[in-house]
Amino acid sequence: MKKTVIITGAARGIGRATAELFAAHHCNVLINYHRSVDAAQQLYHSLTEQGLSVELFKADVTRRPEVEAMVAFCQQRFGQIDLLINNAGIAQSRLFIDLTDEDWQTMINTNLTAVFYCTQAVLRRMIPQKKGKTINIASIWGQVGASCEVHYSAAKAWLIGLTKALAKEVGPSNIQVNCIAPGIIETAMLTPYNAEEKAVLKEQTPLERFGTPEEVAACALFLASDAADFITGQVIGVNGGFVV
Hints:
- It is a single chain.
- The chain contains eight helices and seven strands; from the N terminus they run βαβαβαβαβααβααβ.
- The chain has one domain (4-235): 3-Layer(aba) Sandwich (Rossmann fold).
- The protein is of the alpha/beta class.
- The protein has a seven-stranded parallel sheet, sandwiched between helices.
- 42% of the residues are buried.
């Protein structure tokens, strides 16, 4: 029986690469998107043309009713939910003293509260079936902090704490909860950085390059596999040695 995975924020970047990889490995993939309509539809058509099992669902994961509708649709369409990958997220670079209430709340809602809603909704299905896995996409900045990204770093650090605590709570139900902390990855989140800043980041990375969305997706695929059934509560760095 095919495994079914929900991937939030799957239209672009790491989420897109993850959707492509899981679909290619014969999973049923629910592609969640919110604003990236054209990218999501292009991805959907690309995968369905290959005969792969995917569905699209537009939902703002910061809104509980939309999350509940998405999870219910996935359950109805595919029969059960085996995997959740909490990938949707935003970044922002701004001095801490210049952060507005809206900046702070938007960051926390998108990078943390959405994970709470999505995870709670799928666990209500996973706990009775006594199996399932959730994978949270955090960041190296949640481990070591980033200047001018305090609210982003804080949200990702909280996500790491959520991962560790929840893994202990749902372990007796045979559910694994893990976290991937990517380093500097070639995605749209690098857009605000100029060439000089990117060069410095590469110099600070022992492998002297940026990672790719596909490399993060490969880590998620392993954590989702049966080979990783005894791994839970862990933070896996895909960072080229930036944080060791």
